[in-house]
């Protein structure tokens, strides 16, 4: 299920009833279908050894008695639970800005994207930064309305912080439950990126020394700073979550407005 800018995928269950000598009544109930692209319910012996969870020779043989939905969600958990930290050196033409650490690049809907910044590893001073979770919708060439039609970008969550004088910082981006997992069809493809914007100082600012006397001191930020902005995109993959978790995004709020 996906409601995009140029493409829409929707599913409905149609229920029809009829009484004798009466007209037929039709009811269409919309349902949400989550894509499981990139997930394999069956895995080889080598992959089973890396699977998270209890392992005992006295337990039932894997796959016996499990429904297809359980096997699919187990495959999603195996993919998204593995943490392999990736380190990226962020730099521009004047030097290195910082080192960024992302613990994994595969997430389930509803998870938080957590990353850390190390500004002590850079020589260029960073004034502020922002990170956005963006959906990228691409239409195949033969289905485009215009030949020069560009991919659509939609921002869903954003983290912004002023980091002037910081040695380290971190960001947390929640993934909304109503998003569609990453998928691709012959008509379109839906993917996700982390869009970074770094505002750096061109000339730098004077660092305030640590006060030796008790009581501390007050630091006044610069009134004018020569800056430049740099951007960077990092692709990530989103997978479906458990159906009962995904249903929370579409539940209606109930409120009693009178006596029952």
Could you please describe the fold and organization of this structure?
This protein is mainly beta and 260 residues long. The chain is built from three helices and 14 strands. It has helices spanning 45-49, 68-80, 243-246, and strands at 2-3, 8-9, 11-17, 25-31, 86-92, 95-102, 106-108, 112-118, 126-139, 152-162, 168-174, 183-184, 188-201, 227-239. Strands 7, 9, 10, 12, 13 and 14 form a six-stranded mixed beta sheet that branches. The chain has a four-stranded antiparallel beta sheet with strand order 5-6-8-11, with no helix packed on it. A two-stranded antiparallel ribbon has the order 1-2. A hairpin with a 7-residue loop joins strand 3 (11-17) and strand 4. The radius of gyration is 25 Å and the shape is elongated. 16% of the residues are buried.
Radius of gyration: 25 Å
Largest sheet: 6 strands, mixed
Q: Mean of residue pLDDT?
A: 81
What share of residues is helical? under 10%
Discrete helix count: 3
Intertermini distance: 36 Å
Beta content: 35-45%
Overall geometry comes to: elongated
**Unreliable runs:** 43-47, 252-260
Structure classification: mainly beta
What is the tally of beta strands? 14
Q: H/E order of the elements?
A: EEEEHHEEEEEEEEEEH
How is the secondary structure organized here?
Layout: E1 2-3, E2 8-9, E3 11-17, E4 25-31, H1 45-49, H2 68-80, E5 86-92, E6 95-102, E7 106-108, E8 112-118, E9 126-139, E10 152-162, E11 168-174, E12 183-184, E13 188-201, E14 227-239, H3 243-246
Parallel strand pairs: 7-14
Antiparallel strand pairs: 1-2, 3-4, 5-6, 6-8, 8-11, 9-10, 9-13, 12-13, 13-14
């Amino acid at each position: 299920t996906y409601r995009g800018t140029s493409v829409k995928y929707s599913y409905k269950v149609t229920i029809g009833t009829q009484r004798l000598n009466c007209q037929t009544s039709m009811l269409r109930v919309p349902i949400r279908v989550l894509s499981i692209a990139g997930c394999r319910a069956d895995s080889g012996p080598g992959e089973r050894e890396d699977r998270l969870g209890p392992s005992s020779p006295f337990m039932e043989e894997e796959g016996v008695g499990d429904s297809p939905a359980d096997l699919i969600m187990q495959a999603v958990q195996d993919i998204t639970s593995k943490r392999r930290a990736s380190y990226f050196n962020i730099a521009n033409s004047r030097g290195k800005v910082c080192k960024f650490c992302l613990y994994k690049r595969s997430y389930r809907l509803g998870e938080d994207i957590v990353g850390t910044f190390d500004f002590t590893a850079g020589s260029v001073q960073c004034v502020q930064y922002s990170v956005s979770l963006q959906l990228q919708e691409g239409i195949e060439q033969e289905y485009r309305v215009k030949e020069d039609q560009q991919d659509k970008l939609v921002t869903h969550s954003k983290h912004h912080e002023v980091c002037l004088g910081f040695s380290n910082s971190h960001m947390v981006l929640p993934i909304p439950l109503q998003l569609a997992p990453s998928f691709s069809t012959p008509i379109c493809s839906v993917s996700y990126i982390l869009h970074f914007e770094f505002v750096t100082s061109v000339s730098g600012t004077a660092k305030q020394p640590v006060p030796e006397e008790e009581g501390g001191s007050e630091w006044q930020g610069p009134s004018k700073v020569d800056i430049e902005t740099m951007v960077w995109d990092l692709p990530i993959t989103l997978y479906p979550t458990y159906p009962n978790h995904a249903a929370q995004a579409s539940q209606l709020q109930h409120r009693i407005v009178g006596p029952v």
